[in-house]
Amino acid sequence: MAEELVALNPGTRLADTWTITRKLGAGMFGAVYLCRNDQALEAAMKTEPVDTKHPLLLMEANVLRSLDSIRDGDGKHFCRCLDLGSGATQDPATGQSKEFRFIVMSLVGRGIDDLVREAGGRFSPGTAIGVSIQLLNALRGMHDKGFLHRDIKPPNATIGRPESNELRLIYLIDFGMARKYQKEDGAHRRPREMTKFRGSAKYASISAHLRREYSRKDDIESWFYVLVELFVGVLPWAKAGDKEAIGQRKLRRLDEQQEVRQQAIMELLEGCPSEFGSMLKHIDELTFEERPDYESLVTVLRYILAHNRFQEHPYDWEVGRRFTDQRQVQSAGTQRPGGGQGGGVNQARSAGGVHPNK
To answer: Is 202 annotated as a binding residue?
Structure first.
């Protein structure tokens, strides 16, 4: 479908700058191409028809250009927008001209979804946590610039390119579903009463399933689901069925009956260090406008690495590690099938943020 929408042949030249080399793949609403400029700089070009019902590239360019101004370490997790323009192709069947938009971005490496699949469905503890810390830092940078991602999932995270010596750098990509949550004066936008579902059902937040307005909390909730999946290999609703069935499984965490709530938490955190419980508690208790405590979440993850002597580097894809064994986690109160919640689930969030078990 994407190739029928915008089909560019090798050698096609756009904006008198970019020459198409080959097709890399297809996104939701358009094709992605490898291109190069006159200085032999290779880049990725995304395309979409001008008349598409769901334009994504203008938002993506706006987000990337805003993120390019980040001067601290969080800015390294985003590729650069190199160009934004339009072009036209001729339909060979009808002879009619079809206009399209394009965005040119710096290249990134392989997707986390491909890498975790090669690793046997889950990463080693050190790699899972290391990747998640970098993703969280990327989200902090994006949120602090006033944007929500609204589609956090493994395919939207990649490593860097080996040619750039970036095998240990995680990129956050695909900002077509992003939304500005801050007004020009920095104030938080008021929530709409009802919104369309955004994101991917498997990783979407509870509020997304309820068609409520997205906030920073929802990006972080999706991030937490990614963390759990990378660590243990599966989410409890992975085979629940359609979007509505998945949403019902997640909603059990908010059930009126404490027993149902605790069971839902235990199922989600099975096989995880108990400290994951304190992180989930922090996320679930966030209000709509509240800033997540990114720094404390990172501190907890660093504590888990140190306490369990999990080795973050080298990452699994650097050495070709595969994991099929049952992992042993040393943290006191680790989630167990049929067992209690451990110290982390019931640990209250203090004014200082999220804390590991002492």
So the answer is: no
